[in-house]
Amino acid sequence: QVQLVESGGGLVQAGGSLRLSCAASGRTFTGYTMGWFRQAPGKERQFVAAVRRSGTTIGYEDSVRGRFTISRDNAKSTVYLQMNSLKPEDTAVYYCAASPLDTALASNYMYWGQGTQVTVSS
Predict the structure, then answer these.
(1) Which residues have CB under 8 Å from 93's CB, separation 6+?
(2) What does the CA dihedral 97, 50, 48, 9 come to, rounded to 10 degrees?
(3) How does pLDDT run along the chain (122 residues), one tens digit per residue?
(4) Phi, psi of 30, deg, nearest 5
(5) DSSP character at residue 89
């Protein structure tokens, strides 16, 4: 089992920044690819970004590429999502997740956090 706890969400004005963190405990953090997903009200869960065990990125969702950066600190068992130039359409609950595969598919992620709310006001 891997337990994931997100933090860092909140309310921010358009154009602002937030940094999300996801702390992992349980099984070896370095055994998993880590991903960030988001779900807005009335919409399906959407891939945002993912990072391999080595720290190299798998990719970003098109609308966040160039504004968001995913990273991980294996020594701290933590994955981060730096979000800059935030837009109202970024408003969603953001989830981190762990997968034994290098993948962007939500169905391949075995462990999920509870989520953290990000609200961007216009």
Answers:
(1) 38, 39, 40, 115, 116, 117, 118
(2) 60
(3) 899 999 999 999 999 999 999 999 987 899 999 999 999 999 999 999 999 999 999 999 999 999 999 999 999 999 999 999 999 999 999 999 999 999 999 999 999 999 999 999 99
(4) -75, -5
(5) G
